[in-house]
């Protein structure tokens, strides 16, 4: 069930000059949310910016008894709306519609989960990692960025018990190159059992590479696709992804309804 609520800013952690994590009190959304879903945020009242912005649910926030009280958003400021979120003050309110979209499918033991994040593609993975580890799933995060200074929130994942494999394009931390470099090395070295499922979010070129690697090595993959969304509820058809039909043809699905999570082997790459 989707709700539209006034979420209250609990904290705003600026990670760098461009990235921040915004914690919002919104128990009605948090109690319904599943990893991989998103919210549409109205960053300002009135007409500027006019449209709500989609944001993946980064963390599900809980009280000491474990009850969901809100969620956090990992944001990169690139325009007027994200600038408002970057500057947000404690107590400020934002209209949030959610949870929206199709969540990740969670594997069960003894399967393992490899999460593959490129840049701000880290956004859906804190909630996913927490849910997987609660099931007893051994979870590894392959996380890549341009520089070591753009690898954020590592402490959050380490506290959860996630294994980290890092990569930077400037070779300042972890493996040199894109995150698919250590991913392919790990896939090549992995034994057939237990089954390993890949979960990925990031630039589309990276998602395509992950899907093809998963196929090459016989591993299932689930991709959180990034698309421009005008409404988030299926009305505007601005966020379509081409997917395969069972008979060999193809059609277009809306990322906001049938996604944002798609099976890697279902997508027809343009």
SSE layout:
Elements: E1 3-14, E2 19-25, H1 27-30, E3 38-42, E4 53-56, E5 59-62, E6 68-76, H2 80-86, E7 93-100, E8 112-118, H3 125-134, E9 138-145, H4 154-160, E10 163-168, E11 175-176, H5 180-189, E12 196-201, H6 204-216, E13 221-224, E14 240-244, E15 250-254, E16 261-263
Parallel strand pairs: 8-9, 8-12, 9-10, 10-11, 12-13
Antiparallel strand pairs: 1-2, 1-7, 2-6, 3-4, 3-7, 5-6, 13-16, 14-15
CATH topology of the largest domain: Rossmann fold
* pLDDT averaged residue by residue: 95
User: In order across it, which strands form the biggest sheet?
Assistant: 4-3-7-1-2-6-5
Q: Which bin fits the share of residues in helices?
A: 10-25%
Oligomer: single chain
Supply the number of helical segments: 6
- Helix vs. strand class: alpha/beta
Q: How many structurally independent domains?
A: 3
Strand content: 35-45%
> Strand tally, please?
16
Poorly predicted runs of 5 or more residues:
none
Computed over alpha carbons, the radius of gyration is 18 Å
Shape: globular
What is the CATH class of the largest domain? Alpha Beta
**The biggest beta sheet, please?**
7 strands, antiparallel
CATH architecture of the largest domain: 3-Layer(aba) Sandwich
Please trace the helix and strand order, writing H or E for each element: EEHEEEEHEEHEHEEHEHEEEE
């Amino acid at each position: 069930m989707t709700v539209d609520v006034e979420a209250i800013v609990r904290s705003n952690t600026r990670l760098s000059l461009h990235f921040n994590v915004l914690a919002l009190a919104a128990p009605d959304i948090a109690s319904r949310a599943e990893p991989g879903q998103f919210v549409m945020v109205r960053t300002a009242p009135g007409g500027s910016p006019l449209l709500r912005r989609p944001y993946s649910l980064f963390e599900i926030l809980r009280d000491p008894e474990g009850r969901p009280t809100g969620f956090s958003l990992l944001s990169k400021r690139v325009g007027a709306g994200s600038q408002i979120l970057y500057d947000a003050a404690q107590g400020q309110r934002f209209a949030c519609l959610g949870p929206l979209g199709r969540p990740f499918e969670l594997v069960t033991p003894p399967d393992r989960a490899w999460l593959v994040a490129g840049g701000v593609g880290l956004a859906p993975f804190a909630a996913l990692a927490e849910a997987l580890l609660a099931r007893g799933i051994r979870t590894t995060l392959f996380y890549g960025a341009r520089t070591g200074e753009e690898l954020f929130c590592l402490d959050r994942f380490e506290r959860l018990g996630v294994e980290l494999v890092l990569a930077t394009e400037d070779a300042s931390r972890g493996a040199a190159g894109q995150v698919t470099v250590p991913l392919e090395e790990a896939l090549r070295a992995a034994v057939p059992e237990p089954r390993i499922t890949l979960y990925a979010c990031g630039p589309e070129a990276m998602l395509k590479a992950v899907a093809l690697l998963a196929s090459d090595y016989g591993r299932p993959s689930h991709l959180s696709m990034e698309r421009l969304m005008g409404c988030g509820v299926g009305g505007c058809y601005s966020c379509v992804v081409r997917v395969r039909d069972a008979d060999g043809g193809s059609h277009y699905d809306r990322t906001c309804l049938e996604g944002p999570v798609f099976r890697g082997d279902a997508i027809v790459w343009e």
